[in-house]
Amino acid sequence: MECRVGFVGAGSVARALARAASARGWPVCFYDIDRERAGEAASQYGGLSFSSLQGLAAESEAIVVAVPGPAAGGVMVEAARSSRSGTLVVDTATFKRGVVAAARGMPPRVLAALTHPLFGGRASRPEKHYVAVMPFPGREGVVEAERLYREMGFNTIRLRSWEEHDRLAGYSIGLVYALAEALYAALESGGLDLDSPLPSTTYRVLGMLAQSVLSDSPDLRGEILSNPSTREAAASLASALMEVARGAGPRGRGRSSYNLLYRLLEEC
Q: How deeply is 8 buried, as exposed, middle or buried, from its count of CB atoms within 10 A (0-12, 13-18, 19+)?
């Protein structure tokens, strides 16, 4: 059976994408260094599992490399070398600098793009979620990657470059992770924990966010927090908090989302 999409890695992000693909009747395949996990994912979504990366790559129209960021670039190269001409190869890493540096050795016969699913493994309604798509420097494939995700049912956001993506990711994802860690540290220094403060509406939402982030694996949190884009954003946050500590008044303006917050809390 030829695979419409082959997933390298059978973790939560790969499964969320496979769920969307299989719902459209696409044959999906998995390879994972944990063969049992690949088999479970294939069984769950009516696909096949492969015992080798080379085997999966040779049978897939598109290859989604859904492995931790530090390994993604090298795996893209390995998958591309075993694939057919015209195969699309994409990653799912949170930050792209290291991926680009490690994946430049892909053979020219493959298409390639950089992609970032902006959701976790529990996403079940593709039409409610977004995937950021950007060119891999010097290669064609971004149009095909955008089409792949849209045909799965996701919304896509086209970015001009990985540099633009990484800066935006630092100020969104990285900043949220930094804020969760800072909130935990600030409460701990005051002899409190995340469940201690008064359960106001705004704190309950912030606490849920922090709990969710802090439940991610230490490896993922470390990868995100150590990225230069996150450090840049965290430095800006620290500077803004120091201004508040010195007595700065309110500056920002936003749209009220209290109705949404109440609905969220009352449904939990």
A: buried
